Amino acid sequence: MMRDQLVRLRAISVAVILLAATLGASSHEAKEEVLPNFHQVNEQFYRGAQPLKGGIEKLRALKIKTVINLRSEDEQTSAEEAEARAAGLNYFSVPLPGLKRPKDEQVEKVLAIINDSSNWPVFVHCHHGEDRTGTIIAVYRISHDGWTSEQAKKEAKKYGMSRFQFGMKDYIGDYYKRWMQHQTQQPAKAVSFLMTGQLIPET
Asked: Which residue from 6, 28, 33, 66 has the highest number of Cβ atoms inside 10 Å of its Cβ?
C-alpha cells in the first residue's frame, strides 16, 4: 500500500515537472517568436532585434516602459512607433550607421535615455539586435558596469556581433580608452580644486 502511494507521488511529481518545463518552453518560444534575440541586460534594461507582430504588446506585458530604435526610419519603424505610443510606451528613434562606427553624440544620446530612471525599464533594438545594439550594450557595460573593452566585445560576439564589424569594435575599444582616461583624471581634478580652487581644464 505504502509502496503504491510512493509510486503515485513520484509519477505526479514527474508530471508536474514536465508540465512546468513545457509551459516554460512555450512561454520562451512565444517571446522569441515576437521578440527575436531578446535578452535581459539587468533589471531595468533589455536588448533585442526588431519586434515582430505582437512584439510591442509583449513588451508592454513585460512592464517595459521605453523603446529605443537604432534603425533608420522606414515604414516598419514608423508603424512600430505608432504602435508603441498607442500602447503607452515612450519611443525614441536614434538611427546609428549599420556598417561603420557611430558618432559620439549618437551614443551619448542613447546612453542618456537608458540612464534616465524615468524611462525604466528600457528596451533597445536594431534590425537583428547584434551589431548596433551590441555596440550600445558594450559602451553601457564599460560606463555603467566597469567592464573592460575585451569583456564588452566578448559579450557582443556572444549575442551575434559580426566579426567584420571592425568600425564598431574599434569604437568600443576607443570608448574604453577615453572612459579610463576620464576616470583617472577625476581624482586629480578633485585634488586641484581643493588645493587651488580651480579645476584642471579638459584635455
From this structure: 66
- The answer to whether the beta carbons of residues 124 and 70 sit under 8 Å apart is yes
Compute the distance between CA of residue 170 and CA of residue 98 in angstroms, rounded to an integer: 14
State mean pLDDT over 12-18. 44
Helix (H) or strand (E) holding 48: strand 45-48
Give this prediction's pTM.
Answer: 0.79
Cell digits of residue 194: 581643493
Inter-residue contact 171 to 101 (CB < 8 Å): yes
Q: Which grid coordinates belong to 195?
A: 588645493
Residues with Cβ within 8 Å of residue 76, at least 6 apart in sequence:
50
- Domain 28-182 falls under CATH 3.30.465.10: no
Using pLDDT thresholds of 50, 70 and 90, give the confidence band for residue 28: very low
Q: Tell me the three cell numbers of residue 65.
A: 516602459
Mean pLDDT within 51-58: 97
Compute the average pLDDT of residues 53-71: 98
